[in-house]
Amino acid sequence: MVEDAESQVRYVYRSGKLGLEAKSISELQHLISKVVAATKKRSVSVVIPTYNEEGNIGRLVDAVSSSLSAADVKDFEIVVVDDASRDKTPELMDKYAAAGNVAAVHRYGVRGIFSAILDGVKVARSDIVVIMDADFSHPPAKVPELLKRMEEGGFDLVSGSRFANGGRIEAPFIRKAATVLFNGVIRFVMGGRITDWTGGFHAIRRDKLLSLNFKYPAKWGEFDLELLYRAKKAGLKTAEVPFAYSFREEGESKSAERLSFLLGYAWLYGKRAVQLRFLD
Asked: Total structural domains in the chain?
């Protein structure tokens, strides 16, 4: 029986004139490390996981690039990690990758937003990484502010917060109400000074992130709880920057407003919070 080609794990990496292919992320890391000396190390890597984002990815790359350039951040890269999108996202990624400041990582036979983020971090060619969504829910204009806060305060991790003073949520009522409720319950369970446990918008030192020992698989954004919990447990110096969350306008949402989704969302996040706080 011949195995479906799409089910075979494979990574394709493109940036500028560089084109690499590997059967594992560790192999891809090794290949990239061999050419880093011949290419320029980046000041910051913005990691963006995607799936069917043809309506957003080009605009987002342009917006992030403009924001960083306006803040005089030089030699940055944008690492787009795609899980075999079925629309034009892969083509658009490669088009932008040809310019050199975008790294297009195509993953085949493996899926998941958290593993995509970690793979993007592993192939990043900088000491600082920014993690953000592809749907404009995380404002590109805030990326330089995260970096500035990290530099000025000597922080290991700076998170965007929708609940810190100055933050807000712009979304349909049911989504906003559910987010506020879920985050409130999670804050109560987890304790500490973190105001936003599920924002998913971070700047973090690459070596610190890769040193964290993650234990649990993630289906949706519940990985964020473990990231912040592990960072806190490891003694990382952290801070928050307020931001305005905007509900997606285009593309394929990895969530929905159905009651079944909201209940599943609450169960996964609640379960993860209890696991981390009381069973870890």
From this structure: 1
- Domain extent at residue 257: 5-279
| pLDDT at residue 266 in the model | 79
Residues 6+ apart with CB under 8 A from 239: 149, 150, 153, 155, 157, 158, 159
Residue 109's alpha-carbon distances to 10, 106, 121, in angstroms, are 7, 10, 19
Q: What type of residue sits at position 228?
A: L
CA nearest to 16, candidates 133, 123, 83, 100: 100
Mean pLDDT per segment of 10 residues, for the chain of length 280 residues? 60 94 96 77 96 96 98 96 97 94 96 95 96 96 98 98 96 86 91 94 98 90 94 97 82 49 77 92
Which residues touch 131 (CB under 8 Å, ≥6 apart)?
47, 117, 121, 200, 201, 202, 203, 204
pLDDT at 182: 85
**What CATH code is carried by the domain that includes residue 232?**
3.90.550.10
CA distance 160 to 122: 22
Structure tokens at 151: 């530099």
- Cα–Cα distance for residue pair 94/208, rounded to 1 Å: 30
Q: Please, what is the angle between helix 25-36 and helix 113-123, to 10°? A: 20
CB-based contacts of 228: which residues, under 8 Å, 6+ apart? 159, 190, 194, 197, 238
